[in-house]
Amino acid sequence: MLESLGRIQNPVARSLAAAVTVGSVVAMTAGVVLGVGSAKDNAAHRAAVYASLVGIGCGAVFGLLYPAKASPLPSTSTQSPPSLEQGDRPVWKNWRNFVVVGKVKESEEITSFYLQPEDQGAIPNFQPGQFLTIKLDIPGQTSPVIRTYSLSDYAEPCQQYRLSIKREPMPAGTTFMPGIASNFMHDQVHEGTVIAAKPPSGKFVLDVHQPLPAVLISNGVGITPMISMAKAVALNPTRSIYFVHGARSGDFHAFRDEVKAIAQQNSTMQVHFAYSRPELEDDGHYHSTGYVNTDLIRSLIQQDAEYFLCGSPAFMQSLREGLQVAGVPENRVFFEAFTKGVPQPTEARAVASNGAIDHAEVMFAASGHTASWQSSDGNLLEFAEANDLQPDHSCRQGICGTCMCRILEGEVEYETTPVAAIDEGSALICISRPKTHRLVLDL
Ligand SMILES: Cc1cc2nc3c(=O)[nH]c(=O)nc-3n(C[C@H](O)[C@H](O)[C@H](O)COP(=O)(O)OP(=O)(O)OC[C@H]3O[C@@H](n4cnc5c(N)ncnc54)[C@H](O)[C@@H]3O)c2cc1C
Ligand code: FES
Asked: What is the pLDDT of residue 348?
C-alpha cells in the first residue's frame, strides 16, 4: 500500500487516498467489532463513528507527510512502453533488433524516433550523454550504413530509447549528396520499421552526483545529449545545472517545451535560450538574441563549474578556446563532436607525412590472421575489412570511439587528430596506420 501511495505525486491526492484507505479500514474494523459483540446501544455506535473520523483525519495527515517517489519525466512518446522483465537488465552483445514505435517531429530539421526491442525483453539503463549505434539497410548502398546517435531521453528504469535526428541537407554551394542515413530515417523509417542497434556507449557522460554545477551548452542538434543529462539530474536533483542552448529561431528549436517542463520539475536548473534570427512569434520564448559564445556564458555563470559542450564544430571550437582564455581548467570542459568539420590544414594527414612507413606485417591476434599491409591499403579499419574482418566502427572519423582496439605489440600513428578519448595501449583503427614494421592487434 505504501508503495502505491508513494507513486501519487500530488500531495492533496495522496492525502485523500490515505484518508479514504485508513478511514475505511477503521470503519470496517468497528463494524466487525459491533457485529461480533451485537452492540445495540447508541454510545457504541457513536464511538465507532468517531473512531472512523479520527482514522480519516490521521490518514489525511499521514498521506500529506508521506514522501512521493520520483516519477519518470514527461516523454513525448506516442506509445506506451511494453511490460518489461523485472530484475536483470542485461546488456546485449553486437546487434539487436529494435522496432520504431513512435516518430515525432521536434522542429523543422529534427525528428525523434522511439525504439523498443523487437524481442520485448528488458533494455539496460544508460549513462546520460551516451549514444546508440544503429545499422541501416539502405537501398542503393553496397553495405549497411552504420551511424551513431545520442540518446535524447532519460528515465530510470529505461523502457525505450529515443534518438533525435537532424536531416542533413546537401552542403550549401556543393553538389554533394544529402546525408544518407539522416534522410533515410526522415523519409523511409516509420512506426513498425525494424532497426538494428548496438548497446548504449560513449564517454561523454554526466555524473549526477558531482557537487560542482554543470553547464550544458549546445546549439542545433547538439541539444540531444543535453536533454538526457538534464533529465537525469532532475531525477536526482543534487547538482545544479545551467541549460544554455542556441537556435536560429523557434522553428528550428527542438525540445523547447520539454526543457521548460524539466526545469519546472527541478528547482536547481536554470535555462537560457539564445536565438540568432528570432521571428516575431518567438517573442517571450527566448532569453537573448545572438549566438551562444563565451561572453554570454561568462555573464550567466560566475562560479566554478563543469562545462559540457555539444554542437557545430565552429561553435565548439570557439567555446573551448574562449573557456580556456577565461581560465577554466581543461579538465572541467567536456565535449562531444558529431562531425569533425573541415580539418585544419596543419592537421590533415599530419602524421602520415612525418616519417611514415610504407609496409608492415599486421597480425589480427583474435582471428589468428596475419597480412602484409602497404601504405596504399589505407587505415587499419579498411585493411581489416579488406581481410574479411568486421571490426566494430561507426563514424570512421576518430570521433565516436567505437573502433577502439587494444594494441598487443607495436605502435600506430594517426592520420588526423583523434577526437574520442583513447584507452591506454589502444588505438582508433579508423584513423590510424602501422608505425612499426610489426603490429599485433587484438582483433
Ligand atoms: C557520438 C555521436 C553522436 C551523434 N548524435 C547525433 C544526434 O543525436 N543527432 C543527429 O542528428 N546526429 C548525430 N550524430 C551525427 C550522425 O552520426 C551522422 O553523422 C549524421 O546523421 C549524418 O549522417 P548522414 O548519413 O545523414 O550523412 P553522411 O552521408 O554521412 O553525410 C554527412 C554530410 O556530408 C555531406 N557530404 C556528402 N558527400 C560529401 C563529400 N563527398 N564531401 C563532403 N561532404 C559530403 C552530406 O551532404 C552531409 O551533409 C552523432 C555523431 C556522433 C559521432
Ligand atoms: S569508428 Fe568512430 S572512432 Fe573509429
From this structure: 43
